[in-house]
Design the sequence.
């Protein structure tokens, strides 16, 4: 079968039509199927998932997309955007630091709990500065 099977988790304020339009623009129509967890979370065939995506509406009412990764990639840092701009519990936003407070290629990584996610995001925002792979893995006990 051609295309990708993508599991999408979106905040409740985003319609399935908006998700489909956004994802088709992102992937140039190369997807075979999108599964939206919010529609029917028990109907997701997780053994067929090629990629997991989190979608949300940011403070400027634009759709944002984060690919979920299992391991913290080299060259990435915890992206200090706050939970209000990234409303997915137990996930931490990460991105490539390209200097001058700019980032590229945002992704996110799931951690054990929302408390741990908030703790990591707090440390990135207050005093610790950028948290890279080694610090992240240490904070997560990996």
Sequence:
């Amino acid at each position: 079968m051609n295309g990708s099977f993508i599991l999408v988790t979106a905040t409740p304020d985003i319609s399935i039509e908006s998700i489909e339009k956004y994802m088709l623009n992102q992937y140039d129509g190369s997807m075979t199927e999108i599964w939206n967890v919010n529609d029917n979370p028990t109907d997701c065939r997780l053994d067929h998932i090629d990629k997991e995506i989190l979608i949300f509406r940011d403070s400027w009412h634009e759709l944002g997309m984060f690919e979920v990764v299992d391991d913290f990639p080299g060259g990435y840092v915890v992206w200090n955007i706050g939970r209000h701009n990234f409303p997915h519990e137990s996930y931490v936003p990460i991105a490539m630091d390209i200097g001058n407070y700019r980032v590229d290629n945002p992704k996110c990584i799931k951690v054990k709990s929302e408390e741990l996610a908030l703790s990591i995001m707090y440390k990135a925002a207050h005093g610790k500065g950028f948290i890279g792979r080694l610090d992240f893995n240490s904070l997560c006990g990996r």
Remarks:
- The beta strands are 5-10, 33-36, 51-57, 63-69, 76-78, 91-99, 102-110.
- Residues 16-27 form the longest helix (12 residues).
- The chain has two domains: 1-68, 70-142.
